[in-house]
Amino acid sequence: MNIGSKDCVLSFEVFPPRKNLPIESIYNTIDRLIDLKPESISVTYGAAGNDTSKRTFELAGQIKNMV
């Protein structure tokens, strides 16, 4: 398969920034990922046992509004 062919699909998984970083710190990266026109972008929920659930929902909503 070649990138750009109809058989190739891109998807990305992002992790919410740690609590000590502003959530906006990931928006530039998401903008760049969206430019690649992925099939989907998923947001990890509670990676490594961290309590990031509020940030996960906030980031998922922001991605939805950006596409």
From TrEMBL:
TM helices/strands, residue ranges: none
Keyword flag Flavoprotein: yes
Cofactors (names): FAD
Biological process annotations from GO: methionine metabolic process; tetrahydrofolate interconversion
Pfam families according to UniProt: MTHFR
Keywords: FAD, Flavoprotein, Oxidoreductase
GO molecular function: methylenetetrahydrofolate reductase [NAD(P)H] activity
Pathway named in the protein's UniProt entry: One-carbon metabolism; tetrahydrofolate interconversion
Entry similarity comment: Belongs to the methylenetetrahydrofolate reductase family.
Official protein name in the record: Methylenetetrahydrofolate reductase
Source species of the chain: Anaerococcus hydrogenalis DSM 7454
